């Protein structure tokens, strides 16, 4: 029983050796139609390398997007603090408490510098009302103001890069 299975293996090995020797001889010769099967592993390798490169780029894009969303959430939470500091500065100016005002101004500048370094910028409110970046809370007649222009800013708006984080809340002239 052991002799019979060995003989077919030897025949298979001889056939395998013959097929291995043929491509080696053809490699030195000009490319023929039999050279195409030899390129198939190279093509699959190139496809695999391209797929891996695409995967690496996709993961890098997802990381950037994840970081951007995390920054957006953090900055959104810091906005009320910024608003409170601005209100405290207004109150301190009315009561002429110079030391309190100076301290609050330092904190305000520090916090504003922090959020600006992370890409936050204030939305411009001078000029015409823009529904993409402004939120009209009131419309009232404005003496000497053009219709549709911003009369007063009730709450500042902010952008993170090109995305509106919070629209500016304004009063618009009728």
Descriptive notes:
It contains 3 helices and 6 strands, in the order H-H-H-E-E-E-E-E-E. The chain is α+β, with helices and mostly antiparallel strands and 174 residues long. The protein has a domain of 54 residues: Nucleotide Exchange Factor Grpe, Chain A, domain 2 (Roll). A hairpin with a 2-residue loop joins strand 4 and strand 5.
Q: Order of strands across the widest beta sheet?
A: 1-4-5
* Stretches with pLDDT under 50, minimum 5 residues: 1-32
How many strand segments?
A: 6
Radius of gyration using CA atoms only: 36 Å
Name of the CATH homologous superfamily of the domain at 121-174 = Head domain of nucleotide exchange factor GrpE
What is CATH's topology name of the domain at 121-174?
Answer: Nucleotide Exchange Factor Grpe, Chain A, domain 2
Mean pLDDT: 79
Q: Indicate the structural class.
A: alpha+beta
Number of helices, counting only DSSP H or I runs of 4 residues or more = 3
| Overall helicity | 55-70%
Question: How can the largest sheet be summarized?
Answer: 3 strands, antiparallel
How would you describe the shape?
A: elongated
SSE pattern, N- to C-terminal: HHHEEEEEE
CATH class of the domain at 121-174: Mainly Beta
Q: How far apart are the termini?
A: 103 Å
Beta fraction: 15-25%
Architecture of the domain at 121-174, CATH level 2? Roll
